[in-house]
Amino acid sequence: MHSEVVAKAERARQAAAVMAGISTNAKNKALRLIAAALKEKSDEIIKANAGDLKVFRESSGYSEALYDRLLLNKERIAAAAEGLLEIAALEDPVGEVAGMRLRPNGLQIGEVRVPLGVVGIIYEARPNVTVDAAGLTLKSGNAVILRGGSEAIRSNICLVGIIQEQLRVAGLPEAAVQLIEDTDRSAALTLMRLNGLVDLLIPRGGPALIKTVIENATVPVIQTGAGNCHLYVDEGADLEMAADIAINAKTQRPGVCNAIETMLVHEAVADQFLPPVMDRLIEAGVELRGCPHAVSYNPSVKPASEEDWATEYLDLILAVKVVADMDEAIEHINRYGTMHSEAIVTSDYARARSFLNRVDAAAVYVNASTRFTDGYEFGLGAEMGISTQKLHVRGPMGLKALTGLKYIIFGSGQIR
Amino acid sequence: MHSEVVAKAERARQAAAVMAGISTNAKNKALRLIAAALKEKSDEIIKANAGDLKVFRESSGYSEALYDRLLLNKERIAAAAEGLLEIAALEDPVGEVAGMRLRPNGLQIGEVRVPLGVVGIIYEARPNVTVDAAGLTLKSGNAVILRGGSEAIRSNICLVGIIQEQLRVAGLPEAAVQLIEDTDRSAALTLMRLNGLVDLLIPRGGPALIKTVIENATVPVIQTGAGNCHLYVDEGADLEMAADIAINAKTQRPGVCNAIETMLVHEAVADQFLPPVMDRLIEAGVELRGCPHAVSYNPSVKPASEEDWATEYLDLILAVKVVADMDEAIEHINRYGTMHSEAIVTSDYARARSFLNRVDAAAVYVNASTRFTDGYEFGLGAEMGISTQKLHVRGPMGLKALTGLKYIIFGSGQIR
């Protein structure tokens, strides 16, 4: 067991007990103080970040995309601070009582929404996650243990230092937000196995990170992020709408998890729909890979392999398959999909209902782009990621996902 | 990977897709058919069970208590069948739509309650769990993979055979209820690691079983059962009520998880409360272990060790501690408790509220016995066990605990 991690987790558990009883006003005040301090201390943060950037530029893992994720500047710090103010403006889910009922023996039983307790987050070299995660866990009354990537360690130490200083100013326990400073794998492994101290562990990052956490964690985990999403264009669909949704869901931001990776097209509309939409997609820079039927429409469409159906490209690549009917489409989705976001474009009432019922995903759409699977778009505010498992919560994880329901029972001496 | 387990899990996944769309009427019909068949085929079940009992009597693991758990007779089979009829009478949670709202862009977003999918259950030599678990998962629209203890294998094969026969008669997929027939550890280990095929794994049994599952599973798990529960008797409490609750919570059924294991008493009432209640407890056959202050009241009270505070006796043993105030009681509970059921007896309004807020457990009681933490007593009907983790569900796990919420989105061509 890694001693830094165990010691911080024990402090987090104590802080969580305090945080669970802090009023919404006090939590919002702390969020506003932190937001102001981040803006005020931008230069300090940028200087720490510059240290990370310098090391990263010279490292073997350098890539332009990762460098951009690691970079903090005045605008990004201001955006992170703004994010905290938005979290302060969200409704506090803690304390809501549901299902209060009177039992025949006079016991009054209800369920109250309470923080989960200690939340661990393992993430990669994105220092903005440090601020987001601290804000969401603070507002939901939890204590958080952050374990960011080694590339961002100087930025994270600086950010968490500023956050803890303001927690002190606000009179909240500074151990409500802690950073594991040792970026060695052994520290993360200990965090994954602190049953009794960690109530939830959320991995945020690429498939390798998520796989490591799933395989090694003994504490409860929420699996996030993988999005092999589909658009199914039904027989009799409004083909103009279908084309607009296809273009949007693939090209508006191809690198995110709610973009589509495969389009399924009913054979009855394939001749009419595919040639023009393929032209539009190719024009937008999309590489197409298709089943033999789809390939036949355009010489630039490459044959898709079995692997293509299972791949989350996160890039301007789209697999296209012509299907005999909706059953085949649903079978394909439930076989290759990652239970993230799935859409049908249809004009048929019964098939719309059937698709909604039968597709097993966090978010199932009729006649809209999958790109809406997002905390803000769903009206939840900021989010901790998109859950692709079924336990506890599916889809965008807002404040409520960081809470649970505990039974409270009012008696007058009842015994069994 | 164990081939029987993988093959059954794949069939379960297909069955789950069908089960999710089965009407409540059809599920209830199947439950009633199974109930009738169990009663009708009692002799067949008793004969299979006799085979298990014979082997168990001659085994090195023999104990009277375990033998009794393994035993099936006409009455117990009738009770299991009755349990299925009660499940049929429960409201079906599947299909409920919550939080339907219109977003500014015209998207209509709601959450629909759906089955979890494939539920795995690893349990010990209690063949009645086979029937209960099949009934609850069937009613909630899931497919279940049962992995019972080797001692009950003949009984379980017989029971699942009868259940599958009636699923066929009812026109439901027989793979909705499957038994892993290989009772080797390797089969259970495979079940714990079938990510993508198993949506939830529930261990039901003793601490060793639960520990094995927590440590080895990579699929989502719900931790159940451990109950180191406390009763705190506050200053100014109704001491007669407190005594009745103490006797009930300890002695009414000491072998269950919602019985108390430690009683905490405010020092202001210790002199008046403890001597008579200790006499009553001793009279009821309870062995007492106490802190030095508690020991001073009665020569038969043994000194409690550090280990006593952390032990779930599941027996007629009670640890007793005198505390300076409620803060000390809450600290003790949050340190040694297992987040199961905790109770205060008090007459004070503010302390009642504070105890409810600050004690971190699935069920927190004011002025009632902890023995009520139970699906039936809470009005949920039959249960799959008591969750002592915070993710997904806390406390008694009824039908709703076997479901989750999936987002459904109705659009009219919205894109981002």
Can you offer a commentary on this structure?
Chain A is α/β, with parallel strands linked by helices. The model of chain A has no long low-confidence stretch (mean pLDDT 96). Chain A is globular and about 65 Å long. Helix content of chain A is 43%, strand content 20%. In chain A, strands 10-9-11-8-7-12-13 form a seven-stranded parallel sheet. A four-stranded parallel sheet of chain A has the order 5-4-3-6, with helices on both faces. A three-stranded antiparallel sheet of chain A has the order 1-2-16, with no helix packed on it. Chain A is built from 15 helices and 16 strands. The first copy, chain A, has helices spanning 3-19, 24-40, 42-57, 64-70, 74-89, 127-139, 153-169, 185-192, 207-216, 239-251, 267-283, 292-295, 306-309, 326-336, 349-358; strands at residues 97-102, 108-115, 118-123, 143-147, 177-179, 200-204, 229-233, 260-266, 287-290, 302-303, 317-323, 341-345, 363-368, 386-387, 395-396, 403-414. Chain A folds into two domains: 3-222 and 397-410, Aldehyde Dehydrogenase, Chain A, domain 1 (3-Layer(aba) Sandwich), CATH 3.40.605.10; 229-374, Aldehyde Dehydrogenase, Chain A, domain 2. In chain A, helix 7 links the parallel strand 4 (143-147) and strand 5 (177-179). At the A-B interface, strand 2, helix 10, helix 15, strand 13 and strand 16 of A face strand 2, helix 10, helix 15, strand 13 and strand 16 of B. Strand 13 (363-368) of chain A pairs parallel with strand 16 (403-414) of chain B, so a sheet runs across the interface.
